[in-house]
Amino acid sequence: MNGTILGILDKQIIYQNNGTKPNRNVFVVGGPGSYKTQSVVITNLLNETINSIVATDPKGELYEQTAGIKIAQGYQIHVINFANMLKSDRYNPFDYIQRDIQAENVATKIVQSENAEGKKDVWFSTQRQLLKALILFVLKHRASGT
Asked: Inter-axis angle of helices 100-113 and 122-144, to 10 degrees?
């Protein structure tokens, strides 16, 4: 069985086959403590053995409960932890910048993450432009080896 487990009815597992078209999206709703993570997310993380998996795991519980099993299943596990970079596989957005507009996008995201929601005054723009210039400067000098 390769698909998304949806539940059990009359002692039979109900699942959505991976070949289902056009997509296999699942929307799960439940209050805190209603076992959404254990009954749906972890079950399906463990069941998936063919496709790549990307999981958002703000508490780290998915990693703790499934990483060992996924490694045994042959998966490579990578963690991006922006709160504690020492426990992260790291991510360098500079590796993906090839044009000026991409540098501007990275600079905008970084500046937005540190500014109050909706506050885009002259200082926001100045920070973004300075960061973009610094990113391009670093990339130019990294490429030239100086």
From this structure: 130
